[in-house]
Write a structure and sequence with these properties.
CATH architecture of the largest domain: 3-Layer(aba) Sandwich
Protein name: AAA+ ATPase domain-containing protein
CATH topology of the largest domain: Rossmann fold
Number of domains: 4
Cofactor: Mg(2+)
Keywords: ATP-binding, Hydrolase, Magnesium, Nucleotide-binding
Structural class: alpha/beta
Helix content: 25-40%
Bound molecules: adenosine-5'-triphosphate, magnesium ion
GO biological process, one term: response to stress
Shape: elongated
CATH superfamily of the largest domain: P-loop containing nucleotide triphosphate hydrolases
Family: Belongs to the AAA ATPase family. BCS1 subfamily.
Largest sheet: 8 strands, mixed
Low-confidence stretches: 6-17, 321-343, 482-501
Length: 501
């Protein structure tokens, strides 16, 4: 909610509705004084009348201070961010700074400034002001958690015609907040939060963050174009559906399950999603979490507009299923994806799922959760049931279309190359991951050498696969059975059983 204070005071001139009536009044007084009062006293009286009755501009002023008590005034920050995009050459002094983790410089005003703006035909004048404080006041810097001494009071004055007050409050201020959010989102550095052991917290795990430098984007991902568009549209729909989620009474979260063989781009897709949405990633390494209570603490310390990632869910930790853990209270089943738990591991799949579906998702907004696995069929059914993961995305082996994208990003080849025919035939007849091909394309600066190397690599892999499958057939084993359930090698895309909410 925005708290507003106006600084305009009722003036004597407000007694008169127009400038014309004030002027008429002054002329009348002057005529009377001319007849009865000596010249010197006349001037004195007229000065007083002018002082109190001079026509005042019909303006309102909003004051936006930097602090509201001890807290930061978000409107001040929004105004500062917004106005820095309106800086004209006439501004003489600016402060610029860059912290270690920033990608660009931050611009701030260095002296009192006036900046004009217009919004739907309303003329607005901003004034940046600061005053020396008699006594410095302490505050905590929200970025660094350091205690800072403020020796000056900084604020903005926003002046406009009085009759535009409603438009300014109801439309211009929300517009300014939204613009500032967009500007900040564009400049935002995506962070990767990983688990670290904090010795000063009794050895418990805490989040530690670094800038996410992963350059993966949707443009560089070798995927079927239509499926890629499907994922982008899904993300766009998710972020703009705040009111929808509220209306239907659902927590504003979305779950994705990425599955497929190693090196097909599951982690790259996560990075592409984070870079696209500018959401931070929380990489939850389950093997480092011992108890449900630790998990809860960690999840509650994740921020809004973030992606919680649990990679290799089938093998990162043995997660006993809900039924067995609730009945026996101890650790559990053998079988696919289940091995014996270490004794001190009091961590359950139900703990994870309950918390994610329940309290965690209702405690924040715009949460995305992504599980990845190489073996979807080994996952606990509790994870796969409809409604749990909203979209199942199958990342599969390289297609010809994917190969074309890789050669354009890695080798800048957009047209044809003499090796393409042979490579495409080889790719169509075998299972090769984008990671393997990408690795070959990086072998040389020279495109011809890289592509010739790729042909050799693919031929070699093909003959290896063929001789392996021959020897397996000799032992009566179907090589398809050893392929982690990967059926065929269709393009990367959504499963037929994808669940859409
Ligand atoms: N679909 C793809 N498009 C473009 N590059 C890809 C793709 N898949 C893999 N790569 C390349 O291969 C590397 C490894 O891929 P990535 O780590 O995303 O695979 P993964 O599916 O997560 O594998 P794993 O199952 O082993 O975790 C990436 O850094 C990227 O360079
Ligand atoms: Mg991965």
């Amino acid at each position: 909610m925005v708290v507003i204070s106006f600084s305009s005071m009722p003036s004597a001139s407000s007694i008169f509705s127009t400038y014309a009536s004030i002027s008429a009044f002054i002329m009348l007084v002057q005529t009377i004084l001319n007849q009865f009062v000596p010249r010197q006293i006349q001037n004195h009286i007229l000065n007083i009348i002018h002082y109190y009755f001079k026509p005042k501009p019909n303006k309102s002023t909003i004051i936006i201070e930097e602090r509201d008590g001890m807290s930061t005034n978000e409107l001040f920050n929004a105004a500062e961010t917004y106005l820095c995009t309106k800086i004209r050459p006439n501004i003489e002094r600016l402060k610029i700074s860059k912290r270690h983790k920033d990608t660009g410089v931050t611009i701030k005003f260095a002296q009192c400034e006036r900046i004009a703006d217009t919004f739907e035909d309303v003329n607005l004048e901003w004034r940046f002001m600061f005053e020396e404080r008699k006594k410095s006041s302490k505050r905590i810097d929200e970025d660094t958690d350091d205690i800072v001494l403020d020796s000056e009071k900084r604020y903005f004055e926003l002046c406009f015609e009085k009759n535009c007050k409603e438009k300014v409050l109801d439309s211009y201020i929300p517009y300014l907040i939204e613009r500032a959010q967009t500007i900040r989102a564009e400049k935002k550095v995506v962070k990767l939060h990983t688990l670290a052991c904090a010795s000063n917290y009794g050895g418990s795990v805490v989040w530690d963050s670094i800038n996410l430098e992963h350059p993966s984007t949707f443009e560089t991902l070798a995927m079927d174009a239509e499926k890629k568009k499907g994922i982008i549209d899904d993300l766009d729909r998710f972020v703009r559906r705040k009111d929808f989620y509220r209306k239907v009474g659902r927590a504003w979260k979305r779950g994705y399950l990425l599955y497929g063989p190693p090196g097909t781009g599951k982690s790259s897709l996560i990075a592409a999603m984070a870079n696209y949405l500018k959401f931070d990633i929380y990489d939850l390494e389950l093997t480092n979490v011992r108890r449900d209570s630790d998990l809860r603490k960690l999840l509650l310390r994740t921020a809004n507009r973030s992606i919680l990632v649990i990679e290799d869910i089938d093998c990162s930790v043995d997660l006993p299923d809900r039924r067995k853990s609730s009945k026996t209270g101890k650790d559990f089943a053998d079988g696919p994806g289940h091995c014996h738990h270490p004794r001190d591991q009091q961590f359950t799949l139900s703990g994870l799922l309950n918390f994610i579906d329940g309290l965690w998702s209702s405690c924040g907004d715009e949460r995305i959760i992504i599980f990845t696995t190489n073996n979807k069929e080994k996952l606990d059914p509790a994870l796969l049931r409809p409604g749990r993961m909203d979209m199942h995305i199958h990342m599969s082996y390289l297609t010809v279309e994917g190969f074309k994208l890789l050669t354009s990003t890695y080798l800048n080849i957009t047209g044809h190359h003499r090796c393409f025919g042979e490579i495409e035939e080889l790719i169509e007849g075998m299972k090769v991951s984008p990671a393997e091909v990408a690795e070959e394309l990086m072998q040389s600066d020279d495109a011809d050498t890289s592509l010739e190397g790729l042909v050799d690599f693919l031929k070699c892999k093909k003959s290896l696969v063929e001789s392996n499958s021959l020897s397996l057939k000799g032992k009566g084993i179907d090589s398809e059975d050893l392929d982690g359930g990967e059926k065929g090698k269709g393009v990367v895309g959504c499963d037929e059983s994808d669940v859409e909410v």
